[in-house]
Amino acid sequence: MIKNINVIQHRNILLNKINQQNKQINYQFNQLHQQQFNQELKQENINNQHIDVLNELNEERINELNIEFGLKKRLKINNFLKNIFAEELYKYALLEKNWILATGIDKNKYEKAATQQNDKVNSLQIKNIQTAFGNDQFTYNFYRTMNANNKMSYLEYTFRNILSSNDFICKLNKITGLELTKLTTIFLSKYKSGSFLSPHSDKGNGKLAFVINLTKNWKPQYGGVLHFMNDERTEIIDSFIPSFNTLMIFEVPVETGIPHFVSHIAPNVKYNRYALTGWFD
Questions:
Q1: The domain spanning residue 173 has which CATH number?
Q2: What's the total number of domains in the chain?
Q3: How confident is the model at residue 46 (pLDDT cuts 50, 70, 90)?
């Protein structure tokens, strides 16, 4: 019996080592794939001085979106990016290691690297956030990166340039009529079980907010749903479930903002909710 147990233990140890080696090989392969894609992207930019990563929005489609936006001052565009670029952004999110825990209570922000070294202090902060949420204070708890503080990948550099381009901003103006002139902020967010963003208005962040969803296999019951509220913040008037490769835009009135929130991610959800978020002004 003892011999059999030792054999099983030895087998489990070997299997564990093999699994770890496979994970490392997959990670190295994905890193190499990303480097190759960045190089190809860079070369294409050099050759063409322009990279076509957005699905075309012709004048007819822009006019349709203008009418739709005028009804509620928000809309969702499906298949926003070329599929190959959307997939690369998704891989970028999956492989990203430099996440920052972003939390806040009212105007007090707490941001700290999501590292093993900070696990204890970050866990304590998350508990404080949960308590404050129960007291109806403005609170949030998610992870973010891509703040341009560190060296950018060429993928990120390219995408920032495209969203900042006169061509893209011109199309947004034709859709929204907001006379936008610049991209002010963009970051990559990750919501996992327990993450949320309580009701707020985005007042002062910009005239137009956007969310580019990079989430796959999502279901409404997982949470992480973008909800819009009435001015009194007593009712939900519209909701958008994360869907891969969609662009969500909504006007942020200068004087009042627009009440909205992201619902809690349910416990034990194995997927993460990834999105590129930001504002134009």
A1: 2.60.120.620
A2: 2
A3: very low
